[in-house]
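agent> call fold_tool(seq_1)
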Amino acid sequence: MRRRRKTPGWPQPRQGHLSLDCPAPSVLPGHPFHLTLTGAWEEIPAPRPHHSPADAAAHHALVIARNITATLTPADTVLAAARINTVLGRPTDLPHLPIRVIWAHATLTADEEALAATLRHQRHRHETEQRQAEQSRLLAEARNLRTTLMSDPSLALAYWFAAAPHAIDENTVPRLELLHRSLAAYAPQGRWAQLARTLHTFAETLPDDAKNDLIETAAVLADRHGQHTTAEAIRNLQSTNPAETVQHRP
């Protein structure tokens, strides 16, 4: 009779505890937390057990803890510990490994130098945000002034007079005209303001009937493009003298 060979069963699962003391990075380089991590782990029955289950469990817990602390300042010890313990406080099977971290608990502390560095970092960040806000405000004011100057140079002159009346002299208007021409060269929409000024200069020498004819021509163009409200507004610029008013073109 042939005898059956006995096959060995799966190895008996092991279990153990975590007990770690080490630094954990913070968002401030050179100013880490001090991390104390405790916990428990166990093996999941498997035909091929892990050679170092304690190291695998410790690595899993440390990676989670360090990833959380690296996003916070040393002043956030309570918040960081709460986040770590929220994740590690429940049983977790390690991916692709026959090991389970049953629980883990973290305690974090920070030294005085790290706390002082946190205050300096927060002060610097606040000052940077204030500078950026001021720069944005000044840029917005510059854009508004450019838009005003391109659309109505006389309004820009009035603003200039109100803001700095001592700076107004006989050279103010030539300087304003030079600034207007310079802006028109760089602003994509500036050519339309420049065209309006050119037409204004051209029309100054025309008789009233020719001015009305020019206005009517612009109104007809607006009508052709479906801008009837604009056309009506243009026609309202014509002379109010009936003898000088030109009949609307078809």
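agent> call fold_tool(seq_2)
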Amino acid sequence: MPSSRSPRLLPSLLAAVTLATPALGAAPETPETTRPYLFETVDDVVVRYNRLDVTGVLRGETVPRSFTFSYYAGTTSGDSINLASRCDRLALLAMARPGVFLLEMVHNGSNLSSPSSCRLIRRAALPVP
């Protein structure tokens, strides 16, 4: 015979699941220019021409967030696409090996001389905060 407490647990469980993944359906945020974003986890990566949408948990936070990093490099679109594809590979590696790597993304806006950048960091290489 089911417990009389069971019906009360279902709404709490549904609320917890709903609150745990708010960023997956949200529109990506525009990152602050030149601020490094250090992703502890990468949950989703979307590649669109010369931009990369990354969803994950930032260092020091507990809820996933989404950001759009744009790539403008030189005068040819090929340069921008190459930069975005390199960062895409690093984001996928961070996604495939959770807990091993951190992904650092820096958005430099439309600055042609210094486009957005990315860096993959082995977790053991960072000093403990």
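agent> summarizing second result for user.
The helical segments are 6-20, 77-96. Residues 25-123 form a domain with the OB fold (Dihydrolipoamide Acetyltransferase, E2P) fold (CATH 2.40.50).
agent> awaiting next instruction.
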